[in-house]
Specification:
Strand order of the largest sheet of chain A: 6-7-8-9-10-11-12-13
Number of strands of chain A: 16
Radius of gyration of chain A: 22 Å
Shape of chain A: globular
Order of helices and strands of chain B: EEEEEEHHEHEHEHEHEHHEHEHHEHEE
Distance between the termini of chain A: 28 Å
Radius of gyration of chain B: 22 Å
Distance between the termini of chain B: 21 Å
Strand order of the largest sheet of chain B: 6-7-8-9-10-11-12-13
Largest sheet of chain B: 8 strands, parallel
Strand content of chain A: 15-25%
Structural class of chain A: alpha/beta
Order of helices and strands of chain A: EEEEEEHHEHEHEHEHEHHEHEHHEHEE
Structural class of chain B: alpha/beta
Strand content of chain B: 15-25%
Number of strands of chain B: 16
Oligomer: heterodimer
């Protein structure tokens, strides 16, 4: 693909359509983007005027910012290998042991399976992936190396961040040293799990986590399944330590089930505390237990993102890797059925970006934005979320990295 | 497709693989099926030569056969499919929702057939060759929706079978729709519907009696939508059970939604499950994720027949939904944490009218000689994988006839 080209006939959202003060739809217009070295350098509306430059025709497809897969385990997936269901276990500790025993027996390499999953994530529109990688004594840094190889192979198709994840407990599996090594060898984020149920020492586990983070200048992603007030107590301690370390804006809590278990009043209080400490929440939108009240968190300014989590691995045989499907599930879960709610729900899979703000002002794309894009046969974001529209092409740094353009049968309607 | 033919190279679930008494996988076998007049007449191992001189031959290309799916709760008349995108208007309660629907019923009526056909296409592609559709019978629309839906269903004649529920969506008593309901039963509806005798009709006993009267008059089955929550819904179900006994309407009544069964304490659900099983009352669920749902695991354990449906989708009530029954049962499996081989394989029965491929010992239950030749050919190694991984559907054969997709060229036999 040329370093400079026109992406013509893309559909941009330009405002909400109102009737009696209520938003009833989304207005769109056709535009043409000049893309140079991976950046949108010009946005032209109206009739396309031919130049000498190369052209790609989007044929009226809707343009969306590319998606972010915020929580996945590339090292665990069985994708690309033969089918196997999960073995029931009675506790998370038993699941740990089981996983440790099973993964080494799989015929295909971690690297190849990670690539098989990356293909699926990319096809759904994710051009950025945050992956956790298990670090524990038996495996050392092997998972990290394998996943790094896969991500390296895909580095021209998507960006990534790696969490050095002490799946078996930072303290419980005595993995501090290994995690430190992982942080020195390319993992940019430090991850830990359930300071109470797994590590059996909340304070010590959190303190150790922060030591690793500050020493390695790394962000934090804590997997917190610990339920109810046990979980929210841990969050309170995490928030205090975050502020103490000056780590505001650098800490994420994945799952955060406790927030969904406590009363609405308590959840509000916790939301304010999280917002104050700049802690974000990552959820996979579970449907078999309480989940964090995303509506409430959003209202109080806590950043929330969505990830697919386990996809076809020793923990779960389910999951498609389609992050747009996950966003649709979030919307369904919180009964966001109207145009504005649906349209705004896109932000949970784009790192906060939506083409229109709540008032209907066009805020994306702007000249200077990265050309990381999804093209989909939808009339607007709301439709794309609700109807899970097909992903025709994914563009990363200006290059088509999935799908094709120019063969659309869709007619152009202004 | 011919009246009689060999369907070659069909993969069938053929048993379980046991290890220490636990099911750890599914054995499959490759078979040839002889299909005659819509019935499976012969099932023999693919390695046994067939005499193909007289009979046409089709090749399933080693795809796995599953029993065709049944969509047991849909509203073909409501969907927006086929129309330009439209989101929903939030409503504070059911009555407000009904008022919003009433406003657009007349406007939508004329496109009923077209919209329903779009929905049927989706259902069929997903593997369903049977649909139970509810059709609004109310003063706003009269019998118009019934007529449109009948036309749509006619165009799928030979591909999909159906049942039509005359559904007093705006309240049997509330909108005084008894005589319209009787007209609908005379005009081809085969099942009598009902709706929230408490929340909508405001007279539980009178509403139930009236519904029962119509059913007895037309010797018809019943499918009542009970959204009424908690003890209100529970009382309604109790009351209905006594009417069923009085009228001897055993094995003829379905409860759709039945949220109350999930709201009341588990002991009460258990007591009711025993009664439902005894009276042959089935439960239809759409597997909602934004409220408590009936305890499908418990109901099933007590012998209550439970079936799934997509409900009305992409309509004035909800913008979501795909019409994919395999996705629906995957959601059920996720909801109940059915992650092992056996649970996943058995979960199929919730979308096949109770048909499953293997019993607990791994003995093949389906297909058997003499079974209706209605099957879905999917890319999977076994039922469990098909459910968990939402396997691609390549072809649907309904009563011996190819209803969707393609089979590999006839020349496969060499």
């Amino acid at each position: 693909m040329k370093a400079i080209y026109w992406l013509k006939n893309v559909r941009l959202e330009c405002g909400y359509e109102k009737e009696n003060g209520r938003v009833i739809g989304t207005q769109t217009e056709l535009a043409h983007l000049l893309i140079e070295n991976g950046t949108i350098v010009k946005i032209v509306k109206g009739e396309f005027i031919k130049t000498d430059l190369h052209e790609e025709d989007a044929g009226g497809l809707l343009l969306l910012p590319s998606f972010i897969e915020k929580h996945v385990h590339l090292d665990k997936t069985l994708m690309g290998d033969v089918w196997r269901a999960c073995t029931p276990t009675s506790s998370v500790i038993e699941r740990f042991e089981h996983e440790k025993n099973v993964l080494p027996t799989i015929g295909t390499s971690t690297n190849k399976r990670a690539e098989a999953l990356l293909d699926i994530l990319l096809a759904s529109g994710s051009a950025h992936v945050r992956t956790h990688v298990d670090i524990y004594p038996e495996i050392g840094l092997k998972n990290l190396e394998q996943v790094q190889m896969a991500l390296e192979n895909y580095s021209n198709k998507l960006s990534s961040e790696i969490v050095a994840f002490a799946q078996h407990g930072l303290l419980r599996s005595k993995s501090t040293k290994l995690v430190r090594e992982a942080l020195r060898n390319g993992a940019g984020i430090v991850g830990a799990v359930d300071p109470a149920v797994v590590d059996q020492n909340i304070e010590a586990s959190l303190v150790e986590l922060f030591e690793l983070a500050t020493e390695g200048n790394a962000d934090i992603d804590l997997h917190l399944h610990d339920p109810g007030h046990l979980g929210t107590f841990t969050m309170k301690r995490l928030a205090a330590l975050t502020k103490q370390a000056g780590w505001e804006g650098r800490v994420a809590i994945s799952h955060a089930f406790g927030l969904g278990d406590v009363s609405r009043e308590e959840a509000y209080e916790l939301a304010d505390m999280l917002a104050d400490a700049g802690i974000s929440i990552v959820t996979s939108v579970p449907i078999n237990r309480n989940m964090p009240p995303v509506d409430l968190l959003n209202e109080r300014g806590v950043e929330v993102s969505v990830g697919n989590d386990n996809i076809f691995d020793v923990w779960s045989p389910l999951g498609t890797g389609d992050i747009l499907e996950r966003a649709g599930r979030l919307a369904e879960r919180f009964k966001w059925i109207d145009e504005v709610s649906l349209s705004q729900s896109l932000k949970y899979i784009t790192g906060g970006i939506t083409p229109l703000d709540v008032s209907g002002n066009q805020v994306w794309p702007k000249v200077g934005d990265a050309a990381n894009l999804v093209l989909t046969p939808a009339s607007c974001s709301a439709e794309a979320i609700a109807r899970r529209t097909e992903r025709k092409a994914i563009i990363y740094k200006g290059k088509i990295v999935y799908g094709t353009l120019g063969k659309q049968s869709q007619s152009i309607q202004v | 497709m011919e009246q009689s033919y060999w369907l070659l190279n069909v993969t069938l679930d053929d048993g379980f693989i046991f290890e220490d008494g636990n099911i750890i996988g599914t054995k499959s076998g490759l078979y040839n099926l002889y299909i005659h007049n819509g019935v499976i007449e012969t099932i023999q191992l693919a390695e046994i030569p067939i005499d193909s001189t007289q009979t046409p031959v089709h090749d399933a290309g080693n795809l796995l056969a599953l029993p065709a799916f049944k969509e047991m709760h849909n509203h073909l008349d409501k969907t927006y499919l086929g129309l330009p995108w439209k989101s929903c208007i939030p409503a504070a309660n059911l009555i407000e929702r009904l008022n919003l629907e009433a406003r657009e019923l007349a406007e939508l009526a004329s496109s009923g057939q077209l919209r329903a056909e779009q929905m049927l296409k989706l259902l069929l592609k997903g593997g369903a060759n049977h649909v139970r559709t509810h059709v609004n019978i109310d003063p706003y629309i009269g019998l118009k929706n019934l007529e449109e839906i009948q036309k749509a269903l006619e165009t799928f004649d030979g591909k999909m079978t159906h049942e039509i529920v005359a559904f007093p969506q705006h309240g049997l008593l509330r909108t005084n729709s008894s005589s319209l309901m009787r007209q609908a039963m005379n005009e081809g509806a085969t099942i009598v519907g009902g709706l929230d005798p408490g929340g909508v009709d405001l007279n539980i006993e009178a509403s139930l009696y009236e519904m029962m009267d119509i059913a007895v008059e037309f010797n018809a089955d019943i499918d009542i939508h009970i959204h009424d929550p908690g003890h209100l819904g529970f009382y309604t179900i109790q009351k209905l059970m006594s009417l069923i006994e009085d009228a001897n309407w055993q094995n003829r009544v379905s409860l759709s939604h039945a949220f109350a069964l999930g709201d009341v304490p588990i002991e009460k659900s258990r007591e009711m499950a025993i009664i439902l099983a005894k009276l042959g009352v089935s439960v239809m669920s759409t597997v909602p994720i934004n409220r408590v749902m009936p305890p499908v695991d418990l109901l099933h354990d007590y012998g209550v027949h439970v079936a799934l449906g997509c409900d009305g989708f992409y309509d004035s009530w909800s913008p979501y939904g795909t019409g994919d029954m395999l996705e629906k049962v995957g959601r059920l499996a996720e909801r109940y944490k059915w992650i092992d081989e056996y649970s996943l394989s058995q979960s199929l029965q919730f979308i096949t009218g109770g048909v499953k491929t293997l019993d607990k010992d791994g003995k093949r239950l389906w297909p058997k000689v003499g079974d209706e030749a209605s099957l879905v050919l999917v890319e999977a190694s076994c039922s469990a994988e098909a459910v968990a991984r939402r396997a691609n559907r390549n072809a649907v054969i309904s009563h011996g006839r190819l209803a969707y997709g393609e089979l590999v060229a006839e020349s496969a036999l060499k």
